[in-house]
Please model this.
Amino acid sequence: MSNEPNSTTAATLPDSKSAVVSKDTRRRVIAASFIGNFVEWFDYAVYGYLAASIAAVFFPESNPQTGLLLTFALFAISFLVRPLGGFVWGHIGDRVGRRNALSLSILIMSAATFCIALIPGYNTIGVWAPILLLIVRVAQGFSASGEYAGASAFLVEYAPVNRRGVYAAVVPASTAAGLLLGSLIAGLLTTVLSSEAMQSWGWRLPFLLAAPMGLIGRYIRTRLEDTPVFRELAVEGEAVKAPVSSLFRNHWRQLLRAVGAVLLNAVGFYVILSYMPTYLSSELGLGATESFLATTIALTTYIGFIFLTGMLSDRFGRKKVLITASVTFILLTVPAFALLGTGSFLVIVLVQILLGAMLTLNDGTLPSFLAEMFPTRVRYSGFAVSFNLSNALFGGTAPFMATLLIAATANDLAPAWYLVAAAVISLIAVVLSRETSKEPLSHA
Model:
């Protein structure tokens, strides 16, 4: 790895006093940040897309809707540990280093995901099957709580000051790529395998891929140095001994605004990109193959839109783009969901592309917005705690709440109104925040 000042590819990092970072190093930073988040969300995608098969294996005595509710309840419960994980990973990331936290979190995530493939079903070990699934999901939730925040902070601290938005957009892009691969594999399996084969062994195959992918990500991360701004703090002895305590004592206002700003991402991401195939097939009666295909197309366009959003936020500012996202969701979500009920496959695909594009206005801007909101000394902690708290309360519960609201109201538009409420809260939080896109990163 070359960090020599006389390197022809080197560029001075504006947010650092003296650090020089080569283009090769930045490429490896992008790759390391991408693959870890990719592995994490590949798992979440597979779990969501194969929810019906998993429900049949672990809750065979329940009716289909109850089985789905129980499966999504396990999905939600695993998120409850994420605030705790945010505290732990934030402390490690701000005290020991971003790289060390990210290298450890990907190992835990990969091992836990691999273990899902090995758990026997309810018919084999009875109630221990869902219990073991819950334990593994909790381990995944704990490790995942350090991934998104750490990768975002890592990228923002390595990026040039005028390109932090597009660099940080790599994180949601890798999220969508993980979902996309999960969608493709789930769609392929449901197409080529019978329902009996899927419930017997087919659903396990995607989870086996986590181990090799995780080891590759771990290797790439251990080959990198920590970010220049964090190394400066460590050399100068300015790293906070208790970053979480400092966060709540000195930055609680930013923390509250950050939790509110994350709400639209938390609900929108899981409703539009994870729960949607189940919604289309279970609630609207669309075929499973068509549901996966529609989501796959939407995810592909989402990845392209996300980088455009990152560039827009660099040019026009984080607040303007985030406000536009919230207003768009408030005005268009309910009509968009109403169009999904037409049953036309073309209309469904176009609506999903629209919803995905709307979501990228939020998702492509949020990582740089949150990272810039907190100073370097508590950046990892501030991002991890706010992001995971909001996701624990509203993101992980979104598929469960959507299914429950439909059952309680007999209204297929209930998830849309849930999204509108999240957009209103996020709008208020963003309006109350200050613009940081043109400023150097704060260190104190």
Notes: The two ends are 29 Å apart (CA to CA). The longest strand covers residues 10-12. Residues 1-14 have pLDDT under 50 and may be disordered. The chain is about 75% helix and 0% strand.
